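Lab meeting, action items carried over

1. Structure of the two-component assembly. Owner: GW. Status: complete.
Input record:
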Amino acid sequence: MGEFDFSVWQPSLPFIRDGLLFTLRLTLVAMSGGIVIGTLLALARLSPIVPLARVAGAYVDLMRSIPLVLVILWFFLVIPFITGSPVGAETSAIITFTAFEAAFYCEIMRSGIQSVPRGQVNAAFALGLGQAQTMIHVILPQAVRNMLPVLLTQTIVLFQDTSLVYAIGAKDMLKAADVVGKNYNRPVEMIVLSALIYFTICFSLSLAVKQLQKRVAIIR
Amino acid sequence: MNYHWNWGIFLEPVKSGDETYLDWLITGLGWTLAVSLTAWLIALCIGIAVGALRTTPSRLLVMLGNAWVELFRNIPLLVQMFLWFFVAPEFLPREWSLWVKQDMPAKEFITAALCLGFFTSSRVAEQVRAGVGSLPRGQHDAALALGLTLGQAYRHVILPQALRIVIPPLTSEFMNVFKNSSVAFAIGVLELTFQARQMQEDSEQGIETYLAVTLLYFICAFTANRVMALIEARTRVPGLIGKPA
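Predicted assembly:
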């Protein structure tokens, strides 16, 4: 059994905190951006305009069938060609995760929208609401509520996936742990610390989602 | 947007060595398949066992099964790779630890396959538990009433049905294994993503490289999908609602 020296955790905390802040920022931006774009994609996929539905469907299927690491590398390579100037790993990560997660949130929102009973739509039309009004005031609120636990579970997955920005060297929590581990020559202890932090956050969030699941179920 | 396209790049030799870039990609595909298939085998064996444990009447076994699933579900795969690669050897006796660190053959491959296998097993266990839960209670009771022990009931009655029911979600897990195997680049497995990064740096033809690698991942996932669809059609439980074979 090797000798561990966990005293390295103390001086590492400021770096871990900065890394964790980036990880959280990345998660929150990708979540909110992903849900908004994902909902638009879901509407496009369900739209009666066939070309629009096809394009949205192709985008979602493409994103869902490529490994995330490869998507991260793709965006890091391609974004500078589009913007004309190199972007930092952090900016690239934020754009990548928003675009990537949108595909997954899209599928969740799509099944959420499809889970709303037909009668709701008919009732809304009978009350004189237009297409858009029906969507915004009747369908989407119920879809989001039905899918809230799934949306949050996907966000926990997203939070874990952000560690993959390692591939382009963005400074997230794992990277911070990695750097401190190298500087103090204590990589093993730092990996253990980051595993503990990820586990604590994800496990408590998933317990919270389970509680929420019991509370938000719509009684029919 | 002035990118210099060069589709002939795959046949050109790499900068240091007498291989071509195509050789790199073929090596990568080989390791991706090796890691994914080994991991899938491990995941099925452990996942079915753990999933079944979580449906038994024993509180202790259910708790152990739940702990297994929560442990592997709540740590990012990349961190798990590092845990197995850098941390796990520290827990071995001194001589073993040294051997693992210095002499173990194919260390990266074995670590990645085990790690991905354990990670995926927690997802398989989730599906298997759901499958067992979806069986009518009468199947379990009837098996016991016929005098089968609990073990025999699982072996001959419950699992054969449950496993066939959960083939569709297992299909997407099988496809996920190929995608997730890309994380193994981080511990130095020479799989597709590793080769893609290496080829991109070496050849500076990033777009061609990533397009080729993306296509290869597509082919893997699509083949996995078709193989599972074939198995699904062959093993469909007679008498249940489902698409006709």
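2. GW to write a short summary for the group page. Key points so far: Helices of chain A lie at 9-46, 50-65, 68-83, 89-114, 118-126, 131-161, 173-183, 187-216. Residues 21 and 67 of chain A are 25 Å apart (CA to CA).
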